[in-house]
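hiii so um. not sure if this is the right channel but i have a protein structure encoded as C-alpha cells and i wanna go backwards to a sequence. like what aa goes where. can anyone help
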C-alpha cells in the first residue's frame, strides 16, 4: 500500500479525517466527546489553526481546518495520541485506537470549501443517526445556524463565502445543505484530484507547480498524477517550435540530440510521463538511455547556460497556453 503525500501550506484549508482502528468506535459516550473537544481546543491554540466545521461520528471524525503554520502532522499527532491515552486508560485497553494515518485533503477556498462543510454536516443524517441535520449535537451545524454558542468552530469564514450579512448567509447555508443532501455522498471523493487536492483546474495546477522539482518518492500514492502538470502534446509542440523541428526528428537517434534530450526531460518533469512511456512515444528508445539523458539535462538546467535559457523559453510557450 502506498503512503499519502503531505501538502501543508500556511493559510490553506484542509479536510481532515481519522478513523477508529478496525472501524471500531472511538467515542462511547458524551464524556468522551467533550474530552476530545477539549484536546482539539488545546491543539488549535498550540498549533495555530482554526476549526471551520466538524462532526464527530461513532468510529471516525471529520474536521475542516484552516492552518497558519505547516504543522498539521504535529497537531494531529498531539490530538490522536492525547485522546488515545485518555481512551485506553478509561476503558482499560491497549493498542492503537486510530486506523493508520489520518487523511488531509487540501481544499480551495470558495465553493469547494462550502461543499466539504455541507458534506461534513450531512454525515449523521446519511448514516441514519438523526432525521434532521440540526438534531445532531456533535457537529458544528448549530454554530452555523445560530443554535449554539461557544463551540470550537469558526463558521464565519465559510458563511462569508455566501454573504457578508450573517442572517442572509445562514439562510443560504441552510438551503445549500438541503440541496447537497440529495447528492450521493460519493461525490465528495469524485471532486478530489489525486487523493490530495480539491478545487478548480487552475487551483490543482498551482498546487502541482508548487510540488514541481520536489522529490516525490516511488511509494507516494497518486505520484504519477501529481507529476502531470501539462499536456504532453503541448510540451512536444513547444519543443519542436523552439528548435524549428519536424516530427521525423523525434524518431531519429543521430540528429537533434540536444532538443530531444530537452523534450524527454520536460515530458518527464512536467508531463508526468514514465521513462517507458517516453520511450514508446519516441519509437521504443531504450528507457535507461532516456533516464541518463534526463539526468544530464537536469544538471545542465541547474546552471546558467544555453540549456537553461532554452528550457525557460519552451516553458513559457506551453505555460501560457
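sure thing!! here u go:
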Amino acid at each position: 500500500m502506498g503512503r499519502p503525500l503531505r501538502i501543508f501550506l500556511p493559510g490553506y484549508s484542509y479536510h481532515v479525517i481519522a478513523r477508529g482502528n478496525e472501524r471500531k468506535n472511538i467515542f462511547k459516550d458524551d464524556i468522551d466527546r467533550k474530552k476530545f473537544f477539549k484536546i482539539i481546543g488545546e491543539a488549535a491554540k498550540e498549533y495555530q489553526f482554526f476549526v471551520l466545521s466538524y462532526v464527530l461520528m461513532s468510529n471516525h471524525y471529520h474536521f475542516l481546518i484552516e492552518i497558519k503554520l505547516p504543522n498539521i502532522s504535529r497537531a494531529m499527532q498531539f490530538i490522536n495520541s492525547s485522546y488515545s491515552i485518555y481512551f485506553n486508560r478509561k476503558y482499560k485497553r491497549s493498542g492503537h485506537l486510530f486506523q493508520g494515518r489520518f487523511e488531509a485533503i487540501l481544499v480551495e477556498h470558495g465553493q469547494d470549501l462550502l461543499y466539504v462543510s455541507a458534506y461534513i454536516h450531512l454525515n449523521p443524517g446519511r448514516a441514519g443517526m438523526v432525521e434532521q441535520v440540526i438534531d445532531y449535537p456533535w457537529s458544528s451545524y448549530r454554530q452555523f445556524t445560530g443554535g449554539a454558542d461557544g463551540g470550537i468552530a469558526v463558521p464565519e469564514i465559510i458563511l462569508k463565502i455566501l454573504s457578508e450579512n450573517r442572517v442572509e448567509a445562514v439562510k443560504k447555508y441552510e438551503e445549500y445543505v438541503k440541496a447537497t443532501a440529495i447528492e450521493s455522498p460519493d461525490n465528495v471523493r469524485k471532486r478530489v484530484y489525486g487523493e490530495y487536492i480539491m478545487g478548480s483546474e487552475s487551483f490543482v495546477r498551482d498546487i502541482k507547480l508548487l510540488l514541481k522539482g520536489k522529490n516525490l518518492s516511488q511509494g507516494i500514492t497518486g505520484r504519477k498524477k501529481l507529476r502531470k502538470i501539462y499536456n504532453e502534446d503541448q510540451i512536444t509542440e513547444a519543443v519542436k517550435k523552439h528548435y524549428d523541428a519536424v516530427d521525423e526528428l523525434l524518431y531519429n537517434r543521430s540528429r537533434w540530440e540536444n532538443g530531444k534530450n530537452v523534450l524527454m526531460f520536460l515530458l518527464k518533469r512536467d508531463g508526468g510521463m514514465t521513462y517507458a512511456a517516453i520511450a514508446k512515444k519516441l519509437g521504443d528508445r531504450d528507457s535507461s538511455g532516456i533516464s541518463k539523458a534526463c539526468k544530464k539535462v537536469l544538471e545542465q538546467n541547474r546552471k546558467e547556460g544555453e540549456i537553461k535559457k532554452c528550457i525557460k523559453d519552451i516553458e513559457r510557450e506551453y505555460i501560457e497556453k
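oh and Residues 16 and 104 are 5 Å apart (CA to CA).
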